[in-house]
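Thread: Right handed beta helix domain-containing protein, structure

OP (GT): Posting the sequence first so everyone is looking at the same thing. Length is 277 residues per the record. Can we get the structure tokens written out before standup tomorrow? I want them in the notebook alongside the other entries.
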Amino acid sequence: MERPQESGAVGGRGEPLGEPPLNPKGGRTLIVDARDPHAYIRPSAALKDAGETDQIFIRPGVYEDKVFVADRPVLLIGAGRDHVQIYSRRGGPLYLQRVPSGMISGITFRYVGSDQHSAINVLDSVCTITQCRATEGVLSGVVIYGPEARATFVDNEVCYNRESGIFVFAGAQPRVAQNQCYGNHHFGLAVRDPGSHPECVRNVCHSNMLSGILLFHHAEALLLDNTCRGNQHWGLVMTPDTHPTPPREDLVTSNVLLPNPRGSLVVTEQPLADIGR
């Protein structure tokens, strides 16, 4: 399957970032490089030594690791998502829990195990994840959940996951913008549960095995300027109890929901019938 073209910016398909950016918090910069005996061998090792104003810069390489951050800010910068890969076979490679601020960028997160895990887990966190990739999750590639979840998830690739690409649920209210969600086995982007209300703007959901976007079980969402094309079913699937903005009758003019084999939009009580749920 052909992947979308990207710019040569950090996280794109250009040259890797050669030097760490200036630390906006004024702290130290800790270097991760498995080939350099003077650097940290894994990102998790650098995180153990990092203070709240320190940033971690990951040089090009493939790292088997599990990055877990809880109850503290994070500043984790990779040399580019086509040049830095963090993979795990014993759980998701990135798990954020109650992270109050910070940024993660320029990294591919890949789950290579067989149990039910996602590539990126974001629980009740308010940081930014940008120019990353989440791939091969056995669940959805990215799960953003919890009533305090206000993360910004922007300009990422979410692809080839066994369920949906991005799944927002349990009252989360993130900003989800300018992401490419493709090649996922279910939906490109899914939102579930009362209180869940993401801002979904300018995302492209294509070549997913069900539909581009799913709203179900009392979910709310702002849906503007998204493109859902070339998916196997519809552009957008909703249950009658959901509350999108703009209202249902305006969604087809506020977003691009064609071409898809079954059409642009459908409202159904059984959005998961095709997968036996």
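GT: Both are above now. Quick notes for whoever picks this up: The longest strand covers residues 74-78. Residues 139-275 form one domain.
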